Amino acid sequence: MTTLTARVRTLAVCALLATAVAVAGCGSQAGPKKAAPTPSPEAETSRPPTLAPGPQGLAPVFKNGERREKVVALTFDADMTADQGTRAARGERFDNPELIRALKRYKVPATVFMTGRWAEEYPAQAKAIGADPLFEVANHSYSHYAFTKDCYGLPTIAPKDMKADVERAFKAFEKAGVADAVPYFRFPGGCYDRTALRALAAGGVTAVQWDVVSGDAFATDADAVAADVLGGVKPGSVVVMHCTRSAAPVTEKALRTIVPALRKQGYRFVRVSELIGAQGSAR
Ligand SMILES: [Zn+2]
Questions:
Q1: What spacing in Å lies between the alpha carbon of 145 and ligand 1's midpoint?
Q2: What pTM was estimated for this model as a whole?
Q3: What is the mean pLDDT of the chain?
């Protein structure tokens, strides 16, 4: 599948979400802002590296590592929207323990962008993911409401409530027992603008986008998802996938192809923190 058709398919999926309001990872059209890395924060403390604020103090945005070394960060959005509790109560599964098990089996480090609502629904899984050194837990908002208007039909959160929504997710992680969530934030739907970046400026988070869309949202063909990923990855890439079984049912199956194929090409899997930490020495 070509990149273009992959994007068309992804956008079609996103259009579907206009009514389903279930999943992010629908490619953002907003361009990332460049931001200078902070000098080796890991050298002094164990805190994860972050980017320095962008122009005019806006929250910084990281898209991909632009590395020469063959490294790739698989990221998994653990989506659950604030109003999906009744669906979960009826048995719909927004988690994907098989996927997490597969990552552990393959020993693939990964970054999980979790909504606070997901952590409330699946506290034991949130805690276990947070406690596993393979993984880092990052913030995908509490509510999974959009931070801009017209974002794939997601309900929109007001700018005055944005920072609090992000903080509420971190609190939900703590309550679930995630001790050390990383200060990275993925906008629901990947949608952001200057207003959103300004609203988060004081929050201390680095926004993390991606350069490879897996197209796993509502996909039924694992081979097509794998082909999209393998066709898009380059050194330093960030791949967006999902850890939400009901809305991304073939992700684990696609990994069975993706992981060995990328390793065969010489790729090493890393967490987003490694890409951000290395940003300063990448050029
Ligand atoms: Zn999402």
A1: 9
A2: 0.85
A3: 86
